[in-house]
Every structure is written in structure tokens, then in C-alpha cells.
Design a protein that fits this description.
The structure holds 2 protein chains of 2 kinds.
Chain A (H helix, E strand, L loop, with lengths): L7 H9 L4 H13 L1 H20 L7 H10 L15 E2 L2 E2 L2 H7 L6 E4 L2 E5 L8 E7 L8 E3 L3 E7 L1 E3 L4 E3 L3 E4 L8 E2 L5 E7 L3 E3 L8 H4 L2
Antiparallel strand pairs in A: 1-2, 3-4, 4-5, 5-12, 6-13, 7-10, 7-12, 8-9, 8-11
Chain B lengths: L1 H8 L8 H4 L17 H5 L18 H11 L2 H21 L4 H18 L10 H17 L23 H11 L2 H4 L5 H12 L4 H8 L3 H19 L5
The chains are: A alpha+beta, B mainly alpha.
Amino acid sequence: MTRHAAPGEMLLDYVAGTLPEGPALIVATQAALVADVRASIAALTAAGGALLDALPPAALDEAALDAVMARLDEAGPADAAPPRPVVVDGVTLPAPLARALGDRGGWRGFWPGVREMAIPLADGVHRVALMRIAAGRSIPAHRHGGVEYTLVLDGGFVDGRGRYERGDLCVATPETEHRPVADAHGACLCLAVSQAPIAMTGPLARLLNPFLRR
Amino acid sequence: MIAALRATATFKPHREPAWRVMMPVMTDNRAKPATVEPGVDAATPGAGTPDAGTPDAGTPDWAGLIGAVAVHRDKAAFALLFRHFAPRMKAFLMRAGTDVDVAQEVAQDAMISVWRKAASFDPARASASTWIFTIARNRRIDLLRRGASSRIEPEDYAIAFVEEPAPADRVAFAGQARVRLAGLMTTLAADQAEVVRMAFYEDKSHSAIAEELSLPLGTVKSRIRLALTRLRESLGGDYR
């Protein structure tokens, strides 16, 4: 298995369709980047197929089939068009992210050396954004009220617990205090999804806290 | 074939529309619907080879039927698919608490999606049941998010803007054709199968499962992770 793959329970929730949009975007984007994650999704989806097949059929009368037969030749709604490639900072975003972002992106300063591009989803619970950490710079030390997922799209970072490169997912829980530092030789582009307000713990960065409560 | 024939026997058609007259009588598992021409096998790799998806006795060749729908717009083949999968999709939706009428409506809509999307079914990537499961699952997501337009399409990850190396998913999908899907869940320990079943049948997230079973979250997570490892082993493939 990949070193920093999305955990099995997150993949199961994704495949069953119960994962909220923010974390679902993390899984879909990692799957686009990492074949091992696609293989896990395929295995869990096969379990879904096996379970569907094993169900005792519910009663369904002949009229239901007739009704469907009568509609087969109707023109259907067009399928959602595949997303168009989106390039951010020279990086072609994986397809799920390209669809989620569309053409609405705009950077804003977050912290010296760190920029953020919000991705508004219907999720309502999670804060979803692209983060760009300049070479050698860091996101100030912080804690999380809930789980925070950081998926590396380009470059890499270390956070004192591990090293993360393109396709790797860093999961931080409420118990985790970490300080992600981008590699010295290039900027790091990440997809960050956090569940609850992040609380900066450094003396200066604490001043940011009022702006993070959303 | 037995399930479909049994279902057929309960029908009391008051008239005989063309697609029903066309419905082939299959006497054994090797028979293909009359309207499927030999060329269809070429379009459905694996359908004819003994180690890659030939149905066991008594199981119709669902993949071949989807191929017939895709290639020939074969309504008789579709009717067979409908009779097997629509009642199961309805049951699947009802398990998760969907009202019986809504479940039927959604199952019917999902079967129309099967008709429309049949050409996108690739038997080298998924079994027929698995592909139809994803259609039912996507309809269920649509139902839950009614009104709120979603910006997540569950299968977008398969679109490659940039070619990624090591397509391990092809290996896993190919594995599905070799393993009888029906036996897949029996490869799991009982406590692993339980959490997987609850996720799919009861539409519960892993944290909701932990709550319902009064288990620590960590226990549910480790059962799911063990289940995933076992499923991947069962489906085969060279994983690192």
C-alpha cells in the first residue's frame, strides 16, 4: 500500500456515498494521482456490487418494467461534461479538482509565504482550499478542532511527523499539532480540507485566529 | 439464468410488446440472447474466456447483456437486466431507509441510466453487478443532495489529464472478472463483513457504524482496513 494513502474507512465512506464533499474531494483527487488508491476503491466497489447482487429482490411489478420500456427512447438529460483542464501555478490539477474549482479561483494572502485559494463546495461543514507554501516557508504551528486533510499536488513538505510528496495525504487529528514546512527547492501546492476552525498556536500567528473561524 | 426465468414465470402480460416477443429463451448458461451477434464478444473482452468471467452454471452473462444493450440497443436483453437488477436496486435503496415508492422510482430511473450509459460499461474494468451498483449508488447520492448541486462526480478520478504510471486499478478490475463476485463477501471475517454491509446497506458512515454497534471508532476503522486488505487479496493483483 502507498505510504500516505487515504485510510480504508475514508475510502469505504467514499464508495458507499456517505463521505461529505470536502473529504470526498480529497479521496477523488488522491485517486486521480495514485493507482493504489484506485485499486482500493475498485475492491470496495466490487464489495458493493457483490452486496447488491446478494440482496433478496424487492417486489416490483410488470407495470414498472413497462413504464421504463416506454421511456427508453426518450432523449435523456445530457451527462455532466467532463471537466476542462485547469492549470494553477504551472500544475495541471487532477480532474476532480478541476471540476470543483472550475474557473472561479483567486489567490489571497494567508500568511507570509502562504497563499490560499478557496474552493466553495456545497459541503457546508468543511473549509476547502488550495494552499501554496513558498519554497522553504511554513504554515505556522496550529491545532485542529477536527480532522484536517492535506493532499500534496506538487512539491513536498515535512511536518515533524512525516514527509509528504505529490499524491501523499497528511491527516491531522485534533490531537495533532503540526507545522508543515515546504521543501527548500520549490513551492508546495496542496489541497487542504479541514473540519473545524484551525487554531494557530504560535505567539504571532494567534492573531490570525479570528479570521479562521468559519 | 434461473433467477431471470423464475422472474419471467411470474409475469402475466396482457399484451405482447415487441421487446417481450423478442425475449430469448436461454436454456443454459452458454446461450447468448438471440439478438446478440457473435461480434459482441469482441466488444466485451473476457466474456468468452474460461478464466475471465464466464458465468457459472445458472448465472446469466450479465456483461454480455449490457454489451447487447450498448451495441444493438437490445430491449430484450435490457428486460432481462431489469428483471434481475431493478428489484435488487429497489431493495438496496429501501435498506437505507428510502420510502418504498421513492425506492421504486429511483430504481426505475437508475435502470434508464443503465440503458443510456451501457456503452460506457467496460467488462475489463468492473463486473456487471459492480457497474450497476455504482449507478444505483450515484442515484442515491443525487437523491440525498437533491437541490444542492454537487461539484463532485464520483468517477472523475478516472479521467487522466496527465498520464500516471502503474495502472494498478486495471489489475484489480481484471481480478473482479476472475473471482465470482458472489463469493467475495465470504472471504471476510464475520465482524469485517458486518461493517462493510452496514456501510452499503444501511448507508452509514464508519462513525455512525461505531455508534450503532457501541464500538470504539478505532475498532471499526481497523475492521474496515482489514476488510479492504482482504478484498484486495481476493481480487488478485500485484500490490506493493
